[in-house]
Amino acid sequence: MDYQYPISYEWSTEEMVSVLAFYECIEKAYEKGISRTELMSAYRRLKEIIPGKSDEKNLCDEFEEVSGYSAYRAVKKAKDASEEDWISIKKQG
């Protein structure tokens, strides 16, 4: 990883750790795969911290800009998958 994760300094340390864990789950989905359960758990926690759709989109767009990984694609694939599925995404481009 040679980029910085987008974060807000308004978040508590616990919230920052949770958002960073979500980013790591997105990376796993692209790099080696991740269980749907783990990804959705991290996403639900992200939504507790960032309940607004617009704020979530802005944050995920920033993350995609620096990492090349689409949180939107990973979460959509997880939402469409069955409970026990393994999520693995090929990087576009």
UniProtKB/TrEMBL annotation:
InterPro entries with a match to the protein in the record: BH2638-like_sf, UPF0223
Similarity-based family: Belongs to the UPF0223 family.
Organism field: Metabacillus herbersteinensis
Domain of life per record: Bacteria
Gene3D superfamilies on file: BH2638-like
Name by which UniProt lists this protein: UPF0223 protein ACFFIX_25425
